[in-house]
Amino acid sequence: MYAIELALETEIGLGLTGFGIFFSFLGIVFFFDKGLLAMGNILFVSGVSLTIGLKSTMQFFMKRSNFKGTISFGTGFFILVIGWPILGMILEAYGFIVLFSGFWPTLAVFLQKIPILGWLFQQPFVRSLFDRYRGRRVPV
């Protein structure tokens, strides 16, 4: 029973993360609508929290090596909410890249296993882009 509840939390978290990405995309498409962008950020962070757990989320964002990304992402969200969506999204994008730079190799392996898109991501030029960052963090 407990494993089912944990799987349900993970599924809900992945759904919230997906909706967060979708709302952020809509916010950008609709000329940086700050309401959609703020909703996307809230859904994304809450989805990540449900997916990996609250304790793991706090450890991830409060890790000393992730402070620069956490502060940039939080500041970007605050600037977005007060009314400057383009500057806020630039800061958030920088923070997102710094925070999740360690996940790029994992993402590359996943994308290479997708039936149709996998062929594109297995090409030497695209593969070399991901191989450059394998095993180390991007210098910032």
Task: Please characterize this protein's 3D structure.
Keywords: Golgi apparatus, Membrane, Transmembrane, Transmembrane helix. One of its GO terms (cellular component) is cytosol. It is found in: Golgi apparatus membrane. With 140 residues, the protein is mostly helical. It has 2 domains: 2-99; 103-140, no CATH class. Helices cover 78% and strands 0% of the residues. It is built from 8 helices and no strands. The protein has helices at residues 2-29, 34-52, 54-62, 67-82, 85-99, 104-112, 117-121, 124-131. Helix 4 (67-82) runs antiparallel to helix 5 (85-99). The longest helix is centred in the N-terminal third of the chain and has 28 residues, at 2-29. It is globular and about 45 Å long. The mean pLDDT is 86.
Task: Compile the SSE list and pairings.
Blueprint: H1 2-29, H2 34-52, H3 54-62, H4 67-82, H5 85-99, H6 104-112, H7 117-121, H8 124-131
**Total number of strands:** 0
Sketch the major β-sheet: none
Number of helices: 8
Our count of domains comes out at: 2
Report the average pLDDT across residues: 86
Order of helices and strands: HHHHHHHH
Distance between the termini: 44 Å
Rounded to an integer in angstroms, the radius of gyration calculated over CA atoms is: 17 Å
Query: Helix/strand/pairing class, anyone?
Result: mainly alpha
Give start-end ranges of low-pLDDT stretches. Answer: none
Strand content: under 5%
Specify the helix fraction band: over 70%
Coarse morphology: globular
